[in-house]
Amino acid sequence: MADRDIRVLVVEDEAIAAEAHAAYLDRLTGFVHAGTAGDGHAALRALAAAVAAGQPIDLVLMDMTLPDLHGLDVSRRMRAAGLTTDIIAITAVRELHIVRGAVAAGIVQYLIKPFTYATFAQKLVQYRDFRLQLASQSAMTSQTDVDLAFASLRTPTDLPRPKGLSEGTLGAVIEFLKHQTVPVSSSEVMDQLGISRVTARRYLEHLADTGSLDRSPRYGTPGRPENEYAWRR
Amino acid sequence: MADRDIRVLVVEDEAIAAEAHAAYLDRLTGFVHAGTAGDGHAALRALAAAVAAGQPIDLVLMDMTLPDLHGLDVSRRMRAAGLTTDIIAITAVRELHIVRGAVAAGIVQYLIKPFTYATFAQKLVQYRDFRLQLASQSAMTSQTDVDLAFASLRTPTDLPRPKGLSEGTLGAVIEFLKHQTVPVSSSEVMDQLGISRVTARRYLEHLADTGSLDRSPRYGTPGRPENEYAWRR
DNA sequence: ACTGTTGCGGTCATATTGGTCACGGCCGAC
DNA sequence: GTCGGCCGTGACCAATATGACCGCAACAGT
After folding, report:
1. Does any strand D atom come closer than 7 Å to the Cβ of A163?
2. Residue of A157, A218, A222, A220 lying closest to A188 (CA atoms)
3. Which of A125, A214, A221, A223 has CA atoms 20 to 30 A from the CA of B89?
4. Does the keyword Transmembrane helix apply (chains A, B) (predicted)?
């Protein structure tokens, strides 16, 4: 299992997106694009055909919004057919019950569109590590082994952060902003979190640049206009 | 979802073990024992009956070795029936393909028999946290939110002691931290225990990673922020 | 209406401090 | 005696505060 490439089926109705996923796959070592299906029934047929041909699919990149069936339905039918093929969900839908259903359907990763190549690669590499971890031993010898394997599947490996920003501070700023109902200025963030104005601004600017925050100037007071930031919902 | 207890069905053919699991459940807040099934078909009937009664089961503690069906088969049939009930597998079997199948069947945790109450409680508490995290927001607003929810489900809190850490020193650090009323920095641990800052940090970081410690940066002074640690109660 | 003044936040360079890493030494085990 | 595991050392890296300076808008006086 570990000594051959992971065969991936792309299930995606939009041709452009499907091609993009396939192109992404080619850039990763250890994965091979084994085909594309444009709707749910085609996906199920392709999976069955691959089994019949003795080259079963290892992993499905499944778009949740398909023309005929919902991605979750396709997943359920796969399970009902006894397939243990792993599934990574790709979706623009962020509804709660979809996530819950995904967990129950045995979906190993959940990618929200739009995503960057870095995010895509991270999720797939995590999955590859998970397989390697399982393959490296013939049996789970202890609870710890199982926990580690599961963890390698689901522990987020933090995405590259620009220099000068720390994990903890960034989290604190985000957490603070999420709880605000009105836009806040960098001074307010400084006071509330006990950090300096300069530091507060660095994080706010970064979040605004990456699109997580709305930024707008605030007039009416003496002095240079003050930028105020609001969490984008 | 978050404001009521989690209804749990115990599926276990050995009466003694089933009773033990139920007793364990009673000791945990937020969980309620909703019934016991002695084999696979009984489990499926109980699940359907609970749905019909308007009190669906939230979680199944499923033994894998049942007299009639394998636990994985029961899980697959649940999925085929459209149930999104979560499943925690309990098994003495450690074979690889069982673990792989469990992932595909949407099994959220995997407990290996025999286990202690502490291990049992840890897995269930993790699951409870996962539910709370999902319930705390109406929709997943970002990839990070989804990642965090998945991580809270499967991050091991039971990491083996990594290399470079000794039993004795670890115990000393824990003992010291337990007696502190305010968070301490690695420098303070260094001074008090007479070990180097690097060593102190190794242990503090490990404990923080495993969830035994809370870690937060301390601002207000020039220089890189200092992490302070507090024993989590 | 124009202009200088004032006040406040943005910007930048620098000092400061703790985190991080690689290496080496010591001690116990086999 | 050698090897491996644990810890300390010191150099380097990273993240923050500080303070001086700049820019912009309001305000007041002419």
Report:
1. yes
2. A218
3. A125
4. no
A87 and A176 inside one domain: no
Q: For residue range A53-81, what is the model confidence (pLDDT) as tens digits?
A: 989 999 999 998 899 999 888 988 888 88
**Distance from B136 to chain A by nearest Cα, in Å?**
10
- With a CB cutoff of 8 Å and minimum separation 6, the contacts of A91 are A63, A64, A65, A71, A98, A110, A111, A112, A113
Q: Which of A79, A146, A156 sits opposite B151 (nearest CB)?
A: A156
Q: Please give the single-letter amino acid code of residue B169.
A: T
Same domain, B13 and B84: yes
Which domain covers residue A171, as residue numbers?
167-231
**Domain of B184: which CATH number?**
1.10.10.10
Residues B193 and B125 in one domain: no
Tell me which chain B residues have a C-beta less than 8 angstroms from the C-beta of A199: 219
How close does chain A come to B89, measured CA to CA in Å?
A: 12
Give yes or no: residues B90 and B127 share one domain. yes
Indicate if CB(B160) is under 7 A from strand D: no
- B185: Cβ under 7 Å from strand C? yes
| B114 and B93 within one domain | yes
Pair A28, A55: CB distance under 8 Å: no
Q: List the CATH number of the domain containing B87.
A: 3.40.50.2300
Residue with tokens 């694009």: A33
Residues B111 and B187 in one domain: no
Q: Could you check whether the bond before residue A222 is cis, i.e. omega within 30 degrees of 0?
A: no
- Chain A hits for B84, CB-CB cut-off 8 Å, are 100-101, 103-105
Residue B153 contacts A, CB cutoff 8 Å = yes
User: For A195-205, how does the pLDDT look when each residue is reduced to its tens digit (9 = 90+)?
Assistant: 999 999 999 99
DSSP for B70-109, written as a single string: BHHHHHHHHHHTT---EEEEEES--BHHHHHHHHHTTEEE
Same domain flag for B141 and B31: yes
Backbone CA torsion sign across A8, A14, A15, A19: negative
pLDDT digits (tens, 9 = 90+) for B18-64: 999 999 998 998 999 999 999 999 999 999 999 999 899 999 999 98
> Are B217 and B129 part of one and the same domain?
no
Instruction: Flag if A143 and B158 touch (Cβ within 8 Å).
Output: yes
Whether A159 maps to a domain, the answer reads no
**Residue B147 sits at the chain A interface (C-beta within 8 Å):** yes
Q: Which chain D positions come under 7 Å from a protein C-beta?
A: 5-10, 14-19, 23-27
Helix, strand or coil for residue B116?
A: coil
In a domain, B1, yes or no: no
Specify if B49 maps to a domain.
yes
B:75-94 residues touching chain A, CB 8 A cutoff: 76, 79-80, 82-86, 94
